[in-house]
Amino acid sequence: MTEDFLPINGTDYVELYVGNAKQASLFYQYAFGFELIAYAGPETGVKDRASYVLKQDKIRLVLTSALDPFSEIADHVNRHGDGVKVLALWVDDAEKSWWETTTRGAESEFKPKVVSDQFGEVKMSSIKTYGETIHTFVERKNYKGVFLPGYVPRKSTYTAESIGLKYVDHCVGNVQLGEMDHWVEFYEKVMGFKLLLTFDDKDISTEYSALMSKVVSNGNGYIKFPINEPAEGKKKSQIEEYLDFYGGPGVQHMAIATDNIVHTVSELRRRGVEFLEVPSSYYDDLLDRVGKIDEELEPLKNMNILVDRDEEGYLLQIFTKPVQDRPTLFFEIIQRKGAKSFGKGNFKALFEAIEREQALRGNL
Fold first, then answer.
1. End of a domain among 123, 153, 183?
2. Angstrom distance (rounded) from CA 254 to CA 170
3. At how many degrees (to 10) do helices 347-361 and 238-246 cross?
4. What is the pLDDT of residues 318-358, one digit of tens each?
5. Model pTM?
6. pLDDT in tens, 89-121
7. In a domain, 265, yes or no
8. Which of 95, 192, 227, 331 has an alpha carbon 20 to 30 Å from 265's alpha carbon atom?
9. Residue 205 sits in which domain range?
10. Closest Cα partner for 162 from 58, 49, 314, 308?
């Protein structure tokens, strides 16, 4: 057994650069049930940005907007629209994490640094990955504050109600044709991840388009990153549409776990979140395909929740439509009943649903 040179305790936070963090923050509070817990901006001594920290169970979402139109944040939003900038990883040693990854070939975003306030100190370092996405290593064992130094506690006048979202299950990256293996190798060599699964264009294809995907995971399995690239097809694949509208590689979707997908999705639908729709015929032979499940079929059918089984058990999943006007970032809601996989049996139905949306946008 080789030693894990980059032990990771889990996802620390996911930061999105957005056009209007104040408004986006209210959307995620209302629609997704996140609670506002912290803020940084001009009032806290930060002059170039405003950041709102949202929390639900183990998930921390940071929404950041530029105050300076010529800043890197403004430039990022101009080119990519709202999108994920930072996939932050919770580690015990941010300096060692940076050293282990940069000596193996990672490009540094910033060197190890210590930030502190009256609640203690946090050590952070950061490396670059696909597109403009970065991994920031966060060591917070000597910190008791609400989020990070520079942030102050902030509560909303809106009372958010949790919808049962638990933790980040996985984050998916889209890269250009021919780049998938490069980034899989990056995670293996630079971060010590293992290749978990491979899907080729026979697994993920429709009449019109296809893609390839490989899933990498860290030692304890807490961090899973599927990496997608387009494959040859008759028409433009959803990955190509994403790359066109995002302006390059980036995070395609975040999968968030729940213990009760029927409750979570009914709440999301009630609050106006839109989901991809699969034909009702998908459910005609569902139980023949996946076997006995604990849930009643009718609510799953009514809410368009998909089911798939592997050797370990089964999972339930559903995908939102993009959460901004550009057809880029979306969310997956997933409930695992033992299954360790990613819903391979649902790929075709999902891709056809995505293609119907693409066709409506004139991008197929």
1. 153
2. 6
3. 50
4. 999 999 999 999 999 999 999 888 777 777 777 677 778 88
5. 0.95
6. 999 999 999 999 999 999 999 999 999 999 999
7. yes
8. 227
9. 165-361
10. 58
